[in-house]
């Protein structure tokens, strides 16, 4: 399978790249800096294609879509790249919506032509339980919560408008990453293993699901 993963230089993204390579996938690993992927590239020279690109910058999405089109088709897109801030400034709100919702949406739209050439196209959006309106009992994190809620809504509409593609919104858990911090209860390996299992099981029957890395359905 041809799999594209954004935010692939560290944390969950890097783990997903490793998991996909071990499963025999050809992986397009997209990151602003791909230096951390060098050892993996040496281990999987024919199946790992690091792409050093900041897709949040002007023209980034179009450039990536053009590059992937050269390879014919895409089976799995994992929009993993994101940002978290506790700031409530207008700039941080705008940046969060751009990085967490708009860019994944635009990239998904741009890659739909190559995804639809696959026999089983799947788009996995790495969302968060913090995007759940029903679950929000602690407040705060305005930019992060609302931008990820926007991603959920955009993806729900994509599910309806493109019924031949399977979509999923996946909460990775509270994970020990640079974003999650050392107090997080979930190890990267456990989260990644679960996410990959959820992606592997995706189908048109489950399209539009909002689940955690264990496959449990989450409230919107």
Could you list some keywords that capture this structure?
220 residues; single chain; alpha/beta; 6 helices
Your description of this structure?
The protein has 220 residues and is an alpha/beta fold. The chain is 40% helix and 16% strand. The protein has six helices and seven strands; from the N terminus they run βαβαβαβαβαβαβ. It has a seven-stranded parallel β-sheet, sandwiched between helices. Helix 1 crosses helix 6 and helix 4 (90-115) runs parallel beside helix 5. The radius of gyration is 16 Å and the shape is globular. The chain starts with a strand and ends in an 8-residue tail after the last strand. The model has no long low-confidence stretch (mean pLDDT 95).
Question: Can you give me a brief rundown of this structure?
Answer:
The protein has 220 residues and is α/β, with parallel strands linked by helices. The protein is 40% helix and 16% strand.
Number of strands: 7
Order of helices and strands: EHEHEHEHEHEHE
Structural class: alpha/beta
Termini separation comes to 31 Å
Chain-wise SSE layout:
Layout (H helix, E strand, L loop, with lengths): L1 E5 L4 H12 L3 E6 L6 H6 L4 E5 L7 H10 L6 E4 L10 H26 L6 E5 L15 H20 L4 E6 L16 H14 L7 E4 L8
Parallel strand pairs: 1-2, 1-4, 2-3, 4-5, 5-6, 6-7
Helix pairs in contact: 1-6, 3-4, 4-5
